Amino acid sequence: MNLKELFGYEGKNVVITGAASGMSKSAAELLLELGANVYAIDKNEIDLPVKEKFQVDLSNKEEIDTLIEQLPEKIDALFLCHGIAAFPGRELLVQKVNFYSQKYMTEKLLDRISDHGSVTFISSVGGFGWQQVYNQCVELINLPTWENAMKWYEEHSKLIESAYVFAKQCLESYVTYKCMSKEFIDRRIRLNAINPGDTTTGLTEDFNRSTSPNGDIKEGEEMISNIFLKSWNGYAAEPKNMGYPLVVVGSDICSYMSGQLIYIDFGLTSTWTSGALLQANQKSIEEISRESNE
Ligand SMILES: NC(=O)c1ccc[n+]([C@@H]2O[C@H](COP(=O)([O-])OP(=O)(O)OC[C@H]3O[C@@H](n4cnc5c(N)ncnc54)[C@H](O)[C@@H]3O)[C@@H](O)[C@H]2O)c1
Q: Is 193 helix (H, G, I), strand (E, B) or coil?
């Protein structure tokens, strides 16, 4: 069996954002190894031998529009991976970078994505619980223009206070809501996201600083470790632990997979779900026994 054929990227056009660093850089390296024509985008300099690179600020609609004109006419796989950490005062910027630009690019490029092509996002375990804000996310998703969306954010400032979490919840809602919508399903275009756990990348320092109420990197590191690692005596992932599965999800290997939110966290969020279910079931058992005693 020819492994390059199995992945199906050889000679195909692949567009990937955030490729200067971290998970996306690792994904781009593997895509190159698999023979893809890689079109890589980042706000920072990209140090990879890709087919074409573009230095673009993806929080800026005009820059995205210009970029879109320069991207190839036919795209076989689109990977949207750029992201930033949240700091007070940059709530709207986080929505634009971590969600809205990704939705906007997907929809602007959709006509150019081949039938049976793929769109794959990097979301996060940070979006856990997206179901609770699903209706608000769908309302936002259904707004027709960038400008409408910016106005919506203005009117929902409370909702975007948990800026990183809400943007990732929007991404996860988008995958769930859109995977079988006509424009994707009629052309068999697959839509998925990976949801990474704690990973050491270019974002680590910012995550640490933004998690600490005092902006103290050491304190933030400790807090993140308590949430994501301590319970299983775990360790942070490396970029390739996320970048490589990302490449698999977008490839022909997963040609029947769509609408999936794939947690790559060594099982952590499954145990959160398990704990919540046990607690909820315990409550209903108590209710049932109380009712039968009345
Ligand atoms: N590192 C983690 O622990 C972790 C966990 C879960 C999810 N994620 C997500 O993984 C994705 C990849 O991040 P990473 O951890 O590899 O970090 P990273 O900083 O190494 O990579 C992110 C890339 O996005 C680029 N970028 C940021 N803002 C941009 C903009 N406005 N325009 C263009 N490019 C921009 C950065 O320059 C950088 O190269 C992000 O979406 C992040 O939210 C990270």
A: strand
Q: How many domains does the chain have?
A: 1
Q: pLDDT tens digit string along 189-235?
A: 999 999 999 999 999 999 999 999 999 999 999 999 999 999 999 99
Q: Is 209 contained in some domain? A: no
- 243 CA closest ligand 1 atom index: 16
The identity of residue 42, as a single letter, is D
Residue 197 CA, chain-centre distance (Å), reads 12
Is 26 within a domain?
A: yes
**Statement: the pTM of the whole predicted model exceeds 0.85:** yes
Which candidate, 34, 105, 77, 81, places its Cα nearest to that of 191? Answer: 77
Cβ 68 vs Cβ 43: under 8 Å: no
CATH of the domain at 146: 3.40.50.720
Judge whether 205 lies within some domain.
no
Distance CA 98, CA 119 (A): 15
Q: Which of 29, 48, 203 to mutate to test the pocket of ligand 1 (most atoms within 8 A of CB)?
A: 203
Contacts of 67 (CB under 8 A, 6+ apart): 41, 54, 56
Distance CA(218)–CA(39), nearest Å, equals 37
**Domain ranges, residue 102:** 3-199+237-293
| Residue to probe by mutation, ligand 1, list 15, 25, 41, 42, most atoms within 8 Å of CB | 42
pLDDT of residue 292: 78
Which residues, judged by CB distance below 6 Å to any ligand atom, belong to the binding site of ligand 1?
18, 20-24, 42-44, 57-59, 81-84, 97-98, 122, 124, 196, 198-199, 201-203, 239
Measured over the CA atoms of residue 84, residue 26, residue 74 and residue 190, the dihedral's sign is negative
Which atom of ligand 1 approaches the CA of 196 most closely? 6
φ, ψ dihedrals at 272, nearest 5°? -65, -45
